[in-house]
Design goal:
about 190 residues, alpha+beta, Pnp Oxidase, Chain A, nine-stranded antiparallel sheet
Length: about 190
Amino acid sequence: MKIHFQTPQDIRQQIWKELGRASQDRHHAWRTPVLATTGSDGTVNARTVVLREVDAPHQTFRIYTDWRSLKFSELIHEPNALFVFWSARLNWQLRVRVSVTTHTTGPQVDDLWERVRQSAAATDYLGPAAPGSPRPDPHSDSTVDQATHHFALLIAQVQEMDWLELSRDGHRRARLLADDWQWLTP
């Protein structure tokens, strides 16, 4: 799907439109971006996450996670991270540098948990063991504690976007900052 943009402002508007769609449409390619974080040893870790909410006016994304996960602890120590989105339909790659705040308590987390706990996804946040921890016996019955959840909210504040459009007619690339932009060599 080729969309011709005249200005980076046109690109910015279409990016936020696609991100908004992705947060609502389970089949949108941008629904599951890769989130890269920095480990305590300086290495990079990347994993697929689910884009849950997008707030275009405030330029933020929301991701849900288990507060015992590695990504959560990495983001506490180093809140700067990178999202990578790819859409074959658009032939777009979008890299988004963000600063992430972590939330485990408060009205916002409580309200979200009330919604999540009614869904099948609730068990992801109720398990006795942290994500990625070894299971002693793969056939053992994992006990789920309905009273204690490990749900957390990640809010990613966009710092910079790097948009790349692949095209037979010539690739295009732009860097989009909050109040500025620049065409880049693809």
